[in-house]
Input
Amino acid sequence: MGHESMRPRRPLRTICLWVSAIISTAALTADDAKPVSRHWAFQPLQNSSLPAVANASRVRSSVDQFIQATLEANGLTLGHEANKPTLIRRVAVDLTGLPPTPGDVADFVADDAPDAYERMVDRFLASPYYGERWGKWWLDVAGYADSNGYFNADSDRPLAYRYRDYVIRSINADKPFDQFIREQIAGDELSGFDPKQHERHATPEMIDLLEATHFLRNSPDGSGESDGNPEEVMIDRYFALEGAQQILGSSLLGLTIQCSKCHDHKFEPITQREFYQLQAYLHPVFNMQKWLKPNERFTHAALPGEVEAWETQQREAETRVATLRTEFTRWLREHRPIAGVLFSDDFDGPEATFLANWSNTAPGDDAPGGTGAVTLVAGNAAKPESPAAVRANGTLRIIEGGPSGDKWISTKRAFDWTPNQPGEWIQATFDLLDNKVNSDDKPAERIAFFLALHDFNDNGSTAGGNILIDGNPAGGAGVHLDYPGTDQSHRGVIGKSGYAPGRNFGVRVTNLDGQKFKLEQLVDWLPEERTLELNAVDLPDGGFGFEFCCNRSFIVDNVTVESSTGSTQDEAAQSALKMFRTEYESRRKTLADVVADIQKRQAARPGKIAWASDIAPEPPNVPILLRGNVTTPGEFVQPAPLRVISGTAAATPVSARRTGLADWFTRGDSLASALMARVQVNRLWERHFGRGLVATLDNLGVSGAAPSHPELLEWLAAEFVSSGWSIKQLHRAILISATYRQSSQLNDAAFAIDPDNRLLWRQPVRRLDAESIRDGMLFVSGSLERRFGGPYIPTQRSSAAEVVVNDSQPGSHRRSVYLQQRRTQTLSLLNLFDAPAVTFNCVQRPTTTMPLQSLSQLNSEFSLARAADFVRRLEREAPPDPRHRSRMAFELATGHAPSNVELRASLSFLEEQARAYEPAENASPRAWTDFCQMLLSSNGFLYVE
Output
């Protein structure tokens, strides 16, 4: 590792130097590259001729001829066809991710037409659930997530869902795959979109293309969290760019191009120069010098009339809110319980009253113009040059001209903030009319006021202290104590509501036991949860006042200090208070619901789209990073494709650079499109058979696995291209084959020859993927919400540290593709069953079997809730007879009717469980819940034969 004196101080640079000292960076010579470039994946597509087979009776399609020929060469043959219930469940789950209904199964079993199977396949290909199922696979490959990553920061990507919905729509529409890729690489360039012209007048086609280009922004991006160190900032920016490049390479080319970032690739014919030439296509999107952080990277493209209609709705809603607030405030003033008023100012009286009530010094201070001095202006004055408190138009305007130190205004009266008897209280309240004084002011960062205010600085010796209540617009108020000669100390937070204009705020101090005093935030005169206890010594006598500094200007009215000692606390008063609280809560909820609706509509302004483009007139300079280090840029390079699969794509103007890249990928006769077709065919084959024709889905290069059926892979890829890149036609070609329709039954003789079933002498038994398990449980139990598209459904951490979906929140029963996909927080249920944590992207999932999976099925709240829903469905849809209900439960969960043995065992189980729960009244429903949970945990549900 080198002598201590040779080690650089920065750990990242240290690692880079150590690695570069070990790894040789010698480039491939032209002679070295020639044999590698003849690798099968880098060749044009071959028109494979169909092989001859001895036993053609098992062959249904061209796919079967390739499989049967290989089997016969190894002394094997295709297996028998599975029965109809098994076939329809296999097709339904593979194409839609959901099991068939009992009606679907019955219809298919009863259909004796020669083309019954093909028509059944076509029905599921046409299902809208098909796009959700296969869209999810592409989203994994494309690295889709609803968050930015970057360790635990993992900030939100609120607009990413529009790309997810674009993918689902495109796959349902069977958009040609080459067009699908062109749109994702260069959709913005192809759209003709101009932000100035089309913000309110975009077309549906234009919006579709803009949403597609989010593909380039799927990679993790921590640049929103990195500030300060220029080297670290640049590292984070390149990390986002290199992530996009890695996704591009693995999703479309099936090559590990990221291995050539620091040096020429050790196994593939890809040089470091080519890595950066390919990166140059993407640099305008990731312009290092004109970087936009993730939350700054958006544009607006709305259909004609959408924004105008939204603005009209907003104005109407805001008018309604203003009316409700006025009515609410009037009602509160008329009906709230009145305490003993110690001080009150509505700022409507004569000038002399205002000046008699308020001062620029604390009560008892004989030094006007002290450290907190302000200018009091009693008339309707404009904003003065110096900081001031202005009485204008019947309000008090707290003004601060700049960050020139803390200022405050105080009542001339001092109050006893320690009520004498337990249960007694004193409170100060005010109406917050606005959080800025002028329309061009920034909203106040805090709404701050004092209890027990005294005039001193940190070196003073004045007795008494200050209690600063620092109201937060985001919610609650901080409580800070300040005493002469000491630093201000934070004691905690009270309340939960944010300090928003249009409400009454304040604080109440209640004597608990003579020693402890409780502080509560008041909102519209009522105390909120989250309180704080202080000692008597913390609450000396003093004034009430407002602080204003650091652009914290705001407007208040109706300042009141009250005490319970002057109020009536008899039984009638308590009853009136109870009635007031009930009516208050009803009115408050009505107002809160309307305000929440307004806020939701504001967040949903039409046309907001995550923006991938940089439309600068000049292309950025793209350097080769020596050893991949952002601090050592080398010579500049121009865009160029990989030579081993090069076409005619050339350097283009910055405004169309990615269009050239898209052309290289999708031109029908190019080596790149041939490789892309092989990658997609191989990936789709793996989804149907559990193993790709090439086992390494993300690596079809020299260092990847060899194809098990090379001629079949070539034939399917050529058919895929000649069919117009139709994914649905590719599915159909595979699904109608006898190979796919085989039974999963074990053949001992075949197993002895090919124990891994690489030659496909039977259909592999496959466990459902994670999403299909969750979605299937919702579907079978009758609780699946069948709404398509829209913002994600949030996940959260439970008290047990599990990542869950709140089962009671709207949308919680939607399909898993619509759940929040956070890079650092995969839903626990899905994670157990191998759903990926999307670091960059996921091309291939493992399939694991662990005890925790069974424990989750037996004990998780989600599983228990779905079993209960399943019982309720049976009660709604099945006759009450246990035999009929058991039969229906089996058909829903497993796709087939129970055998006589299974039925007898089920009825026996139900009887025994009910007896075990007796004498409880719900013994029978609990037994049925256990039975349904057992079915949802069984292999018959969790596996596809």
Notes: The longest strand covers residues 425-434. Residues 1-10, 16-33, 367-373, 380-385 have pLDDT under 50 and may be disordered.
